[in-house]
Design the sequence.
């Protein structure tokens, strides 16, 4: 079964609604899955075939998963409508982000630096903000960000993301009732079920938790992660 991830009127991702039926034939939501830090077409296709709804390609210079424009474009072209391809950026201008999106063909941008709300608003509906969370003040910042979607990640000094550390899920459970939350930060096949039970996010995001080394996806771990998410609902 394919699931839907639509940002605004994003027509490039044509998937039916993400629902399944419970034992009483009532429709219940299915948590979406984003596999971040994909670095090749082979990885991207494999992750999509295993059930990923979205794939992240990373443009942040400090990331070991960084890809160049040409690689990202090839990935986006190969995936087409099978999944949403998300470009991960940090601390670049709105003009540069628009140019990058156009050059690569990614479906939307994930702003993972210290971008102000105004930058997010300028890129809507094809963008969302990632906020690193360690306390209530960070949760309030996440809720203040414009747009339908917001990502929450672990707050680790000196690290923008991909730290492999979890955040305190109880901090963002309330936020997930009011916003479409993308939950990141140290998720693995072993803990994602508990994370979904505690937070009920709209989507879960994983990178290091399904890798054998930075940027190298372990497809057995990807499958285990997808299976764990589907089991959790």
Sequence:
């Amino acid at each position: 079964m394919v699931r839907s991830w639509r940002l605004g009127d994003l027509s490039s991702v044509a998937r039916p609604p993400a629902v399944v039926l419970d034992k009483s034939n009532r429709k219940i939501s299915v948590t979406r899955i984003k596999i971040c830090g994909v670095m090749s077409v082979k990885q991207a296709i494999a992750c999509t075939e295993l059930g990923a709804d979205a794939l992240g390609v990373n443009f942040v210079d400090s990331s070991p998963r960084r890809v160049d424009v040409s690689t990202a474009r090839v990935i986006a072209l190969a995936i087409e409508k099978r999944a949403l391809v998300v470009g991960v950026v940090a601390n670049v201008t709105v003009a540069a982000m628009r140019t990058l999106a156009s050059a690569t063909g990614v479906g939307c941008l994930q702003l993972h630096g210290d971008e102000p709300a105004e930058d997010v608003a300028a890129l809507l509906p094809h963008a969302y903000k990632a906020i690193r969370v360690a306390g209530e003040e960070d949760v309030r910042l996440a809720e203040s960000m414009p747009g339908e979607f917001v990502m929450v990640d672990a707050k680790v000094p000196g690290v923008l993301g991909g730290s492999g550390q979890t955040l305190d899920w109880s901090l963002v459970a309330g936020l997930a009732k009011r916003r479409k939350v993308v939950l990141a930060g140290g998720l693995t096949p072993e803990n994602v079920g508990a994370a979904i039970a505690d937070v009920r996010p709209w989507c879960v995001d994983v990178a290091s938790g399904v890798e054998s080394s930075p940027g190298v996806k372990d497809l057995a771990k990807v499958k285990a992660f997808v299976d764990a998410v589907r089991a959790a609902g």
Q: What stands out?
A: DSSP finds eight helices and twelve strands in the chain. Residues 219-232 form the longest helix (14 residues). The two ends are 13 Å apart (CA to CA). The longest strand covers residues 127-133.
